[in-house]
Structures are given as structure tokens and as C-alpha cells.
Amino acid sequence: MNKNKRVTSYDVAEAAGVSQSAVSRVFLKGRSVSKKTREKVLATAKELGYKPNAIARMLITKRSGMVAVILSSRANLNYPEVLSLLNKRLSAKNERVLLFNLDDADGLDDILEQIWTFQVDGVIALAAHFDNDSINQFKDHNIPVVLYNRRASGHSASSVCCNHEQGLTELVSLLDDNNHKSYLIVGGPEQSDVAQERLDCSINALAQKGHHKVPVRYGDYSYESGRLAFAEWMQKNKAPTAVICGNDTMAIGVIDEARENFGLNVPEDLSVVGFDGVSAVAWHSYRLTTVKQPLEQMTKAAVDILLEQIESPDNPAQLRVWSGTLIPGNTVAPAKDES
Amino acid sequence: MNKNKRVTSYDVAEAAGVSQSAVSRVFLKGRSVSKKTREKVLATAKELGYKPNAIARMLITKRSGMVAVILSSRANLNYPEVLSLLNKRLSAKNERVLLFNLDDADGLDDILEQIWTFQVDGVIALAAHFDNDSINQFKDHNIPVVLYNRRASGHSASSVCCNHEQGLTELVSLLDDNNHKSYLIVGGPEQSDVAQERLDCSINALAQKGHHKVPVRYGDYSYESGRLAFAEWMQKNKAPTAVICGNDTMAIGVIDEARENFGLNVPEDLSVVGFDGVSAVAWHSYRLTTVKQPLEQMTKAAVDILLEQIESPDNPAQLRVWSGTLIPGNTVAPAKDES
DNA sequence: TTGTATGCGTTATCAA
DNA sequence: TTGATAACGCATACAA
Description:
Largest interface: A-B, 49 and 49 residues
Keywords (chains A, B): DNA-binding, Repressor, Transcription, Transcription regulation
Pfam families (chains A, B): LacI, Peripla_BP_3
Oligomer: homodimer
Strand content of chain A: 5-15%
Low-confidence stretches of chain A: none
Domain HTH lacI-type (chains A, B): 7-61
GO molecular function, one term (chains A, B): transcription cis-regulatory region binding
Protein name (chains A, B): LacI family transcriptional regulator
CATH architecture of the largest domain in chain A: 3-Layer(aba) Sandwich
Distance between the termini of chain A: 84 Å
């Protein structure tokens, strides 16, 4: 038990009576080592408690074995699941996750700074605040990046996205088929690109069905903000018959607010739809009608694309888009006749 | 834009007409550098796009600036919040989070292996599977570790815990005060130490109030498992008047199952309590009576203790325990007279 | 298959 | 305050 000094490959080499490079080769796969020395080295390594130093290895191989994952805490409620899946898939490919939390835009420079110095092999970005300028910096630094649910303008970075347009078109069609004419949209945070895209898609889909000038309120993706948005709307306006929400959590907030403070039954008096397909949408009290993102496929693609770009940096950036799955739920019903 | 070669301190030194060590000193605080050379170096560094290589720095300073955070995806629902807080506090102290997911016990050796090689400065462990043997390995490797909601036997590692005993005693007292006599416990996964501790505390607290041989069913902390546990119990037994759950998510599952499939009203027919204080307990349909863990304080303490141990490895391990806060909620009511 | 020698990009030490 | 030089612990080209 050497307390003060780490065991190095030299120590093992000396104890095993071989050269340092022999030790090094034993711990790399695909190098030619005789069975005899391999066993000898492995034995003494175990005895001395030797573990290769990944830091030194990084320095020489110029691969850190680490991928930076950037996320914002206030992003969608499904991010824990996404993070967990990404981590699992990356470690299967022998890459570790170095975590970065981006909550206010002014922290961005800090984070980018750290990413450069840490020599990560690649970046997966789920964060809300992320302008094209920042994305281009990755290109300058020659480090592959995959955007998650965020499209890069131009071809500067690869993206893995859920098809918000398709999902929202389905949701809107469903509402329209149920004869809804009076809508309210509760959008996510205005700085968020995903939120903005969902909002645009909602508005377009509604317009295609002939519903124009649909009012919009904004929340921050949280339950409370959903309640608040609906309450504020109701203070000065009459109730819509359908609410389209920027994510599931706000939708649940809208449902609760409508039921508790305005005596509205969902879905009889008010239809509500969300987006994401978080686990709580299956809870009995809500059974939210929503669109589920294919997290399994999306996270797998994100990792695959990133590793491909790491291996072949000159490959062109690619965009992969996945359709969401409509979850019928129980929060949409035919609009009551208003006449 | 050097595409193929990273800019090093030598490049900057040459361009600025100073020595490499001068460049190095400029990027370290507290070193003596004249204002003149500092400015010159900073300017050319910016011009060339130089960023110090953290890997090389790690190798020489023997500090990686990384803390390993180990967690299991099936652990408590509040882990995402914990992770986010830990990340925030650690980056404030200039440490990055290297994430490890420990889902099956046999992955443990792999993870430990990686932790040694990555030379992390310290470890924060939230994982369920974590025996004393593994904990001792950290001591052997001379790497500080703080356990989160998991007590180390002996004094091998520091711990930050929520006082489950106090919390559950409060919950049990509340139920007992409401005259409940027929209990069911829905515990968390049997391999989880936290779940086991909560279970033991529940049983002890009940025993102190004179309730013995309380039946136990097990879930895996998920909503579905809560529903299932309650449903299975009801198949062969009569309804309890109170259910004590190992976490909030299962409690919500129990509530929904009782309401939907057994026509029980909560809290009138059935009282239910949880543990954790996740955000969903505030949702209108549940208003769960539970105990909230002081995440802010616990995560702060975990980081503070860890950094202290990193600075002074000989400091003794410490244990800090925090009381939870009873959230009254709306899922406990007086027991109906059974006579 | 094995060993020697060199380099990765820093920080630390010491003399100037 | 500055610069030369030696680590740090490994991988790799090359010679044997």
C-alpha cells in the first residue's frame, strides 16, 4: 500500500524485470506481447496495484476519452432520462461524460473555455442558450459537436431532433377534428430554441386548419408556470376550449389550474395537449394527450454520429430527425357547441 | 486557424519573445509576472488562440480538477435535482463532474477501475449498490469520497445524510395521532441501502407506537411499482388504512391505484405518506404528505466536505445529518372507525 | 517480440 | 522578475 506515491509503469517494469514499454504494451490491446511476459507483467501489476494513468495517456494520444454534455437545468423535464441514456451509450463506447450546466447565457464563455482546455473528444449540447456563434467556435477548435433537439443553421454541426412539426401537426389535427375553434398556446421560455420551434410549429399547424391569431402565453417549462399562464389568461379573457402547451409539465399545470381554480373539467370543458411524453403523463390523474419523443433512438443516434465525427472529422455534418409518437391519452374531447 | 496543430505555450512564447515559463506563469494566479510581459503574453495568446492544456497540467500538478459522481438511474426521482445542484456547486469551486452510472452491481468494478485511472480528485457516491468493501478501496487509493444518503460503517468515509429516522418518526406519529391501526409499508428496492434504512426506520417508529408485524411490499421506486405493490396486496388482503411508502413516486402510484382500481378515496378511506419532497408532491391531484430532504444544504455540505478532504487528506471522516421537513399535504386523515 | 529513446504540454525548481 | 531544465507517466518509432 504505497501511500504517497502512485505506482507507475516503471515500477512494474522494474519489479517484473522487463522494460517500461513492455508494460505499456500489455495494457494496450492489439500489441504484440509474448504470453510469458504478459502474464508476468499482469501478475506484478496486480501485486503492486498498478493502474495505467489515463491523464498521461491522454496527453500522448490526444484523446481524452471524455465527451462534454452541456445541459440547462431548466430545460425539459425529460433531460434526466436523456442524460442517463447518453451516459449509458457513451460508456459502452468507452467514453466518459463530463458534465456542464449552462443556466445563464453569460456562463457560456466560461464553459466553452473549459471545454477547450479539457480537450474533450466531442460535445453533445442540450442547452437552451446556444447561438450559432458558439457553435461555430467548435468548428474553429476542431471539435465535433452534436446538437440535441436544436438545428444548426448551415452545416456547421450535426443535429438529432424530434420532428416537432409532425408532432404538433398531429396534435393540432386531433384538436381540429374535435371541432375546437378557441385556442390558447402556452409556450416554453422565449430564449429556448426548442420552445420557439414548437411555438412556430403550433401556430403554423393551426393556421393551416384555418385558426389564425391564436393567443400565446409563455411559461418556463415548469408546472407552476403552466398554472400561472392559464390563470393570467383567464383573468381577462374567456376560457379557450383547447390549450396547446410547450411541454408536458406545463400542460399538467394548466390542467390542475383549470380544474382547481376555474371549475373546468378536463377534457369535457377543456382539452389540453402537451409535448415530450414524460413518465408523469401516464399518471391516472392526468393521462395527458401528448407526443412522445423517441429518446432511445435519438440518444443512440447522437452518440453514434458523434463518435463517427470523432473518428472521421472530415465527414460532413448530418441531421437526423425522428417522428414523435402520438399518445392519445385522455385530455382531448370534442369541443362543446358554443352557439 | 491552425487546423492540425494545437497552439502550445511554446508557440506563444516564441511569438511574444519570452520564455515558455513566462507564458505558463501568466496563466497561473499568484505568480510574479511583470505587468508588461503579462500584457504582451496575453495579447499574443489571444491572437494565436492559445488555451492552456488542462491534461498536461493535470499530469504535473496531480490534480485533475474532476470529481466523479456515481449514481444509479433507478435511484430516487430526486437525483436529477441533486446532480444539478452538485454540478453547480462543484463548478463554483472549479471542479468538473465526471459522471458514472452504476446500474448493476457487476459494473461496479469497471467503474472503480476507471475512477482510479482518471485520477479524479474525489468522489461523491449516490449509488444504491455500494458495499463497504468498495468504500475501503477508495481509502487504499487515497482518494476522498463522500457518501450521499448512505452511512459508511466505521470511519472510512464521510457521509451526508437526511435523517430518515426523524422524518419517518414524524410521519408515523402523524398517522398514529390520526388513530391509524392498520398499516402497509411499500419499501424501495431491497438492494438499496437508503431503501433499507427507510424501511427499518418505519418499522421501528411503528413499533414504538405499538404497531407490530406491519406487512411490507417492495417496489423499485417507480410509479408503476407503487401501483403494483398496492394492487398485489389488495388481491389477498383487506385494505389498510394507512400506507407508508419508500419514496414519493411510489406513494403517488399507490394513491392512483387505490383511487382507480379499488374505489378508495385518499385521504378519507386511505392515508398515504411518501418521502423525498419531489416537485410532483405539490401537484393538485396529489398534495402528498411527505418529508422533504434539504437538498440545498445536503449538496452544499457534500461538496464542502469533499473539498476539505481533498485539501487535507488526513482530516478525519465526518458525518453530517440533516432533518427533513414535514410537508403536511393532504393525504392523511383520521382513520375510519373499524368497529 | 523486446528494449531504447523521444515526445506529449504543462508546472516546479532553481539559479541568474 | 525571468529563463533554463527537469519532472509528470505514458505511448510510439525505431533498432535490435
